[in-house]
Amino acid sequence: MIRSLSIASLALVVGVTAAQAEKIIIKGSDTLGAKLVPQLAEAYKAANPGTEFSIAAEGSTTGLAAIIDGNADIGMSSRRAKPTEQSAAGAKSVILTPTVVAYDGIAVVVNEKSPLKNLTKANVEKIFTGDVTDWSAVGGNPGKISIYTRNTSSGTYSDWKELAMNKRDYAGGSQKLAGNEQIVAEVAKNPNGIGYIALAYTKSPGIKVLAIDGDLPTPDKVRAKTYVYSRPTFYFTNGEPSGKAKAFVDFTLSPKGQAIADQIGFVSVGK
Amino acid sequence: MLNKSTVQLMALGLVGSFAATAAAQDSGALIDALVRKGVLKDQEAEQIRSQLSRDYAANTPAGKLNISSSVKELKLSGDVRLRYQYENQAAVANSAAQGVQPASGVEDHRTRYRLRLRVNADYKLADDFFAGFGLQTGQNNDSGNQTMADGTVNQNYAIYINKAFIGWSGIPGITLVGGKQVNPFYTTDLVWDADINPTGVTERIEFNKFVDLGPLELALVGGQFVATDNTESATSGKTNRDAIIYHTQLVAGLKLTDDVKLTVAPGYYTSNGASLSGDGGGEYNYTKWSSTGTEQLRGLKVYTAPGDVSFKLAGKPAKVLWDFAWNADANNRNSLYRLGTTGSVTNANAAKLTNSDRDSLAYLVGFSIGENKKKGDWSVLANYRQVGLSAIDPNINDSDWSLSYTNMAGYKVGFFYNLGDATTIGSTFYSANNLRDNLGGGLSAVGPGSGANAVQVLQVDLSVKF
């Protein structure tokens, strides 16, 4: 009897340990981590009972740092790794390896009451760098422009400087916000607000997506990269994905995973 | 049919043939073109980009440094300066010591060979924080000069920390810094010696980040600096709190044309009235002060107004500059020096030393032209200044002009030439005479007020920056 209990206890311990071993730790981008990855995780768990996820979406910088420091299985990022991050990784014998998991278009949004429908790429740069401070200068109603940006740990914050601002600094009065949802909320409240958000958040109420040089960020234009603010999004791993990380990367890239990406508002890869 | 690895290898080789490793970051356009042509898929392109980025990191000096991932940027800098210095002082009649009457007109010559090493590290950190430190030769005060062989012929020299600070600039337009830091104020060396990195906290608000002021640049700067740590349990009301200097300044810049800019920076500084403790130690170079005096930071309510007009002259940057300081509490400070009284001091001149309006005023007017940024560059400067006995704090003014004595008037001229982009040779000459000869009595006998009737200083410098 005692022996049977011992074996049962051992089996229980082994079982719990096995279950704990299936916990996948994912950190990084708010763009990926606020909607897409949690839904992918739910679908993955449904197909792989016993798997647990820990997802922290605090910006791409935190995802890359987590891979470098060995604190995550997958680092979500909406930008490429910087040379300084590659350097820090190399010093710890970590090989930052990107996998493109979806495409995204960064949409320029204004309050739904704005009369504007289109901005030129040049005017977008002028607005976000502070060269232009009043809507009347770009065809809008007179009023001081309120700029909402992501915070500095965000990959979108860096990408936007590269894609839209000629690597110039943001305007002094711009307000840094934690995520896409916060930008949507502020722009929806402020008739003079402008911000940029990931494609997945463009259906939110109170905001309007502007065309850039006549192009709206449609899936086809993002995939073809004819929309000017298109970009890939990544999972980063230490070397080629393996084990539980590989299983989740494979699921993300599977037809089922990519369908979820499309459904949420990203643009699937491989079509 | 080429397999994936072969395609990647070919692309990598193609990119590599166009881009040296150090320039791998510029290969993005080529990779993009290969993707557009269908030679590479996006995933393959990203793997190549990542490989190139790793190579860049591994094969450049930056890539070999193991720096914390929280560091976004690190700047290392420094300089070495060799200096010949000649000083001549004509002593006051009663300056040898309190109560002693030396012969009038004594000359004091001194020649020194000096060196200064400074090494700086400035870090930009995650979440809008920054930090840094500096190491330099010198003494236990803010001068980095180390007199060569100041003890024995085989002497080595000590290194001191001249900067150690943490800052935050998370709100655009607002910068907060704590620690021993570069002086944040717009100033000339009339009031603040450029060698001094004060210790305390500073705040800077740039109003242009919050409101549209057109061509006007406006900033408010505040500083609270620890001058001396006192023992709070002391019985004296002047030594039972730490001595703090408070300085506030409004800096306004107005661009008048593309080449002409006006800057004015009215300000105010004072102290909390606490005493500096001891003599020769502490934050500032106040070794000239009498050890019997405990009033050194008192009687300072100083209004300052430095400014300049910068412009181009014969294609060179030029500047007309000025500074002004008026101590509203100068008479009180004079009494702290015990001027006009005999007190415990035996001084034949003391009885005639009454307060003068001149004691409360310091001013500087000057001109400079040129810059020293690259080989062949040159610059010239000249200024004249008058410094009343109690107009400013001699703990923090320029220690070269008149060896920081107040109650002086005179000039400073200098010429500097760049032998190379980083190497400059130059010379500066300072000459000053007492506003009132043989001023003495109380602390002024050995303090800043009358250390000399006349002072000349000649410096010849050779410096390199790295």
C-alpha end-to-end distance of chain B: 54 Å
The CATH first-level class of the largest domain in chain B comes to Mainly Beta
- CATH fold title of the largest domain in chain A: D-Maltodextrin-Binding Protein, domain 2
Q: Which CATH-level-2 architecture of the largest domain in chain A?
A: 3-Layer(aba) Sandwich
Rg over C-alpha atoms of chain B, rounded to the nearest angstrom: 28 Å
Largest sheet entry of chain B: 19 strands, antiparallel
E-strand count of chain B: 19
Q: Helical percent range of chain A?
A: 40-55%
Low-pLDDT windows of residues of chain B: 15-24, 94-104, 277-295, 339-352, 440-449
Instruction: Give the integer mean of the pLDDT values of chain A.
Output: 88
Query: What proportion strand of chain A?
Result: 15-25%
Largest sheet of chain A: 9 strands, mixed
Oligomer: heterodimer
Unreliable runs of chain A: 1-20
CATH topology (level 3) name of the largest domain in chain B: Porin
Instruction: Give the overall average pLDDT of chain B.
Output: 79
What would you say the CATH architecture of the largest domain in chain B is?
Beta Barrel
